[in-house]
Amino acid sequence: MDIRQRLASNLRRLRGQHGWSQEDYADRAGIHRTYVSDIERAARNPTITIVEKLAVPFGVSASDLIA
């Protein structure tokens, strides 16, 4: 599994644990919902800045999202 697939899997898992829709999560992370969708499908290669934004709503580190 490559790093984009690990990120996608971790995002879907954490988002599901919190009971958030992609739109809810995107609002919390401050990014567009379609971008979240693309990341969760491993169709995007997000910057480290975006990975950090994705981590904040979950209260985890960026490295936790790609581990």
TrEMBL record:
GO terms for cellular component: cytosol. SMART domains: HTH_XRE (SM00530). PROSITE patterns: HTH_CROC1 (PS50943). It holds the Pfam family HTH_3. GO terms for molecular function: DNA binding; DNA-binding transcription factor activity. CDD domains: HTH_XRE. Keywords: DNA-binding, Transcription, Transcription regulation. The keyword Transcription applies. Residues 11-65 form the HTH cro/C1-type domain. This is Transcriptional regulator with XRE-family HTH domain.
